[in-house]
Amino acid sequence: MIGDILGEVLGGVFRFIGRIFVELFFETLVQDTGFILLRLFRRKSASSDTACTIVGLLFWAGVVGGGIWLYFRLTTG
User: Fold this and answer.
1) Cα(77)–Cα(74) distance, rounded to whole angstroms?
2) Looking at the whole model, is its pTM more than 0.90?
């Protein structure tokens, strides 16, 4: 009985912390990056959340891919 209550409380706490982490990560790193990049190239039109997300994901995929490429380029003789 106490274990069930404690499990429910801890599950709720971890779910809440996970939700905050995902919101901060997704909103800040992905959508805001996409918004900034779209704003640089399309000044007059309003950007949707979907467009910001796609551009942000593509940007970060390019950053990760470029970092991996650079790592292997510099470490192999």
Assistant:
1) 8
2) no
